[in-house]
Amino acid sequence: MSVPKDIKERYEKLKSEVEEHNYRYYVLASPVISDQEYDKLFKELVELEKKYPELKSSDSPTQRVGGIVLEGFQKVNHSVLMLSLDNTYNEEEILEFHKRVLKNLKKENVEYLCELKIDGVSVALRYKDGVLSQAITRGDGTVGEDITENVKTIPAIPLRLRKNVSIEVRGEIYMPKKEFVRINSEREEKGLPIFANPRNSTAGTLKLLNSSEVAKRKLNCFMYYVINPQNYNLKTQEEALNFLKEIGFRVNPNYKKAESIEEVVEFWESWNSKRKELEYEVDGIVVKVNNFEFQRLLGETVRSPRWAIAFKFKADQKETKLENIKFQVGSTGIITPVAEFVPIQLEGTIVRRASLHNFDYIKERDIRAGDYVIVKKAGGIIPQVIGPVKEKRTGEEKVVTPPKSCPVCGGKVGKIRESEVAIRCLNPSCPEKLLRSLENFVSRNAMNIQGIGPKILKRMVESKLLKDVSDLYYLNEEKIRSLGEGIGDKTVENILNQIEQSKSRELDRLINGLGVPNIGTKTAKDLANHFKTLDNLMKANFDELIEIEGIGEDIANSIIKFFSQEEVKKIIKKLKEAGVKTGQKEIKEKEGPLKGLIICQTGVLSRMTRQEFAEYVESLGAVFNENLTKRTNLLVVGENPGSKVEKAQKYGTVIMSEEEFFEKYEKN
Ligand code: IVH
Questions:
Q1: Is ligand 1 within 6 A of the CB of residue 126?
Q2: Is 117 one of the annotated active-site residues of the chain?
């Protein structure tokens, strides 16, 4: 089928409109339309590509959601060696650099351009006639790896430039501090090794083989280098930065021209204190001779250019005495070693403890109780023990080994999956685990039962009012009053009210609250959306689970194992009996000609969008599911269907065309 001319035109227009809004949002940070309006345009683009796959081009903004899974990364030769920079840490060394530059140029003075040194991963981007053709890692400087598919998911990297130039540029991809913290806490929750700093997590993300996973992590970038600037008539680094901006790249705004080396030092000093306020990590400034002709005259050594130098900030890290390593038991039983040290001031706050994450972390760094250790804030936020000061050892320090039993209840400990670094308390009725699981259950992300804080929960556990999370729903006035001191009428009423209200929370909150190991907020939402009821989720088998995007084999196994436990089944039964809502059962039980059916759809329908279709079938009593699984009863097929048809044939699912379906189920 050839694509009609007006559709082609609409497609090109949409593509550039979406990219333009993307540019305004991510590069200029000044959007002109609302998120909803943007989503609408984006959706139209997706629908057009679905209907006319031949339209789809490599510079389409739809590429940004990822979806390509690679087996590995291809090696690519760099066009120009990707050099690194010499480092200095103090004023004397920067003065020496300045003197060397003047001597080599035989000049009295020279102009510098000072930029921030972004602590990320460098990347080379190639554009052919304005379209992104290849993104390459630094590698060893001569040969890098092709990470194009992953880089396409970064919204600040233009897929098409604002001028049709063929060009190679370089810059830094980084992970914002906030995202780094989010990812690490998710990893800790899942028992995975954590990233030491935003640079490592950026590097780790760029080397993921599934680009949809990359798209989920909020990477960003700044570009700062043009290869062969003479081709674009650029004479200075300052002009190059302006040119980069002009053609659509995100350029760090915090650069400054310095007429003297004193101004360079001033710039360095001012950013040394201001850097904390930035949303990304910088580890120094880069000082570049501004004039390209002078750069060329200065040339480079095998390692680094003679025209630039990195003037690093002193890392804000301090030495302190690690007094004790405590073991903390989390809600899923994970035993986390925590360092308690003599309090120190770091980046504006007093720090007295830091998670040591897991026992591999301690072993790799040989951290011992009683050691002097170096502490810093990872990503400028999370206190982290970098390692011991071994010279200061007295011989009194104690090697810390994983506990043989739970430090709180004495129960058995072990790993629930071989791939995990975490060690867990395996006793289902460990009081500490119970306390943590209750804290998780009432927390804001889960059942959001305000008014029951950690202190009251602890008293309730100690006085055996709560033996599992479901007991919350069997509390009454008498039981709460039995806690004694400090429990007034108001408190009792408030607690009971809050608990009552929480009975009708959404399913994802309940899933979160139950504390399934390895499941974060996002996965809980995906599971709730997919299965609709807790019963469905509990019945789900391995094949069904791994079909859901973002759920791998480990998580699927973990879910199955969790729900197969007798204690868990008992808790869920008790929750139900107490009237806690466990999903959108009412939809399934709704009367209608499609009552009890699970329906899935593929391809483009002529009479309504997918969302409208979902609402339509649900109004007739069915459950609509995005994914096709063995439990799906009916697949409705529109134009240009996807792989679901084949799957449905394999499972023996009933398949109907759009016409057949509406003939049968048209509402009158
Ligand atoms: S210029 C030929 N400018 O720092 C040298 N590099 O330690 C080109 N970096 O490999 C580098 N911010 O990954 C330059 N504003 C900036 C930078 C920057 C971060 C990184 C880059 C480089 C490393 C050198």
A1: no
A2: yes
230 CA from centroid of ligand 1 (Å): 20
Lowest mean per-residue pLDDT among 115-129, 329-343, 401-415, 581-595: 581-595
For residue 549, the domain's CATH number is: 1.10.150.20
Residues 438, 541: one domain?
no
Does 457 lie in the same domain as 325? no
- Examine the pLDDT at 585 and tell me if it is beyond 60: no
Say yes or no: CB of residue 554 within 6 Å of ligand 1: no
Do 271 and 368 have their domain in common? no
Domain identity same for 125 and 262:
yes
Q: Is 173 in the pocket of ligand 1 (CB under 6 A)?
A: no
Q: Round to whole Å and give the CA distance between 115 and 170.
A: 14
pLDDT band at 590 (very low <50, low <70, confident <90, very high): low
Question: What residue numbers bound the domain in which 365 lies?
Answer: 317-399
* H helix runs in 207-314, sequence order: 211-216, 237-246, 261-274, 292-298
118 C-beta closer than 6 A to ligand 1: yes
Q: How many CA atoms lie within 13 A of 137 on its CB side?
A: 20
The DSSP 8-state label assigned to residue 375 in this structure reads E
Q: What are phi and psi of 237, to 5 degrees?
A: -60, -35
Question: Active-site residue among 15, 117, 377, 532?
Answer: 117
Q: Is the pLDDT of residue 589 over 80?
A: no
Task: Determine the distance separating the centroid of ligand 1 and the alpha carbon of 318, expressed in angstroms.
Answer: 26
